[in-house]
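Lecture 7, part 2: worked example. A protein chain together with manganese (II) ion.
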Amino acid sequence: MRTNGKNVRVRRTIGLEKHMLQTERLILRPWEESDAEALFEYAKDPAVGTPAGWPPHQSFEESREILRRVLMRDETFAVCRKEDNRAIGSISLKRDTDLTFGADERELGYWLAKPFWGQGLMPEAAKELIRYGFEELGLSRIWAGYYDGNSKSRRVQEKCGFRYQSTDTGIDVPLMHETRTGHTNVLTREEWLRQGKKHPLIGVTALYDAELESLWMMPAYLERIREAGGTPILLPMTADESEIAQLVSVLDGILFAGGQDVSPALYETTDETGTVQPCPQRDAFEPTLLRLALKKDLPVFGICRGLQLINACCGGDLYQDLPLQRPSDVCHRQERPYTDPVHTVTLTADGGLRALLGTETLAVNSCHHQAIRTLAPGFRATAITPDGLMEAIEKPDAPFVWAVQWHPEMLSQSDAASRKLFERFVQACRERANRA
Ligand code: MN
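Predicted complex, written out as C-alpha cells:
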C-alpha cells in the first residue's frame, strides 16, 4: 500500500462542467472511482506517462489515489471508447497553470493508453474538448505544451490547429525530478473559428459619401464579422434586381450597416419633416436586397440605419427626427468615443437577445437621429430603452432576422455581449451555408 493515510478530499464534478461529451468513436466523461482498475492497467506502462512527465503507477492503490486527487477534478475527462465506456486515456482543460493567464484561458493536457495509439483517437477527443472550451466555456485561448522529443503529443496539437509559441530549455518536471526542454503551442478562439469549418460569406452594405460620391466602410463592421468566423464582403450599390438576386444567391447572410436617414418614401410617407440627407443610392438598393434575402431565408442583421430600414421596408414606420418628435432625457446621440455605453436597454423576456445574453439589461452606445415609431407586423421588440423606444427587434418566424439600434461593432472589443451578438449572427449564416 502506498497510500499515506492523508484524508483524500474528493472533488465532485460540479455545475457547468458536469458534461459528457461525445465524438464519433469516443465518450468523454468525468472520471469515476470505479475506473481505478483500468487506470492502473494502462498507467503502469512507462511508455504512457514518462513522455508527459509523470512516472508509471506502481500499484492499484496509487492509481486510485491519483484518480481521486487529480483525475476526478472537474476540468478532467476520462476518454472512453463508445463500445464499452472503459477509460483508455485522460484529457483536461486545466485552469491556473504556468501557461494560462486569465480566467478565460486553459491548458490542454492528455494521455492515451498504449494499445490505442495510432488510431487518431486523441486528436478526435481533443477537437471535441477544444470545441467545448471555446463554445461552451467561452474561452479566448487554449495553450498546450509538449516535452522535446514527444512527437506523438506534438502531432495531436498540430492536427488540432495549434500554433507554435515558444521553447523553454529549463522546465522543471517535479514528478520525474529532472529538467527538460519543452515547447508551447497556442490556439485562439478566432483561429479556431476560422479552421475546419466553412466561413460563411457575409455581405455588408457599403456606406456612401455623397460629397465624394464614393462608397466607403468602417473597418469595425468587417472586423467583428471576421472575429466571429465569417468572411465579410463589401457589396456594391445597384438597383438592378437580377444583379441583386445574383448577390443574394452567393451570400450566406447580410449585414445592413448604419448610415443616412431612411427615405420616408420607403414607409409611404410624403412628409419629410426632420429627415436629414437620405441616400438615394442606398435606398434604391437595400430594400430590394432585403426583400430577396428574406424570401430566401438568408440570415439578416441590421445595425442602426439597418434596423430602421428593416422596420420601414417590412411595414413599420419611423420617427423622422427623434429630438423634434419625441424629446427625452435619454441621450440617443452621444459624442465620441462610441466605445462607451451611454444608455441602457431592457431585454424583453421572450426575445432572442435575452436568451442569448442571459441578462435583463444591457448598456449600449447610441448614435441615431431616427427610431422605430410603429413596429413592422410580424416583428417583436427584444430591447426597450428607459424612454420606451424599441431598440432591438427580431422576426420570430425567420431563421435569423435581428436588428439593433445601437452600434455593437463600435463598443469596446472586450464587450462580451457585442461579441456574442456577432457570433450568433455568423453562426446562423454558417448553418445556412451548411444547409445550402
Ligand atoms: Mn439610443
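Residues 201-435 form a domain with the Rossmann fold fold (CATH 3.40.50.880). Residues 332, 343, 366, 368, 385, 391, 405 surround manganese (II) ion (CB under 6 Å). Keep this in mind for problem set question 3.
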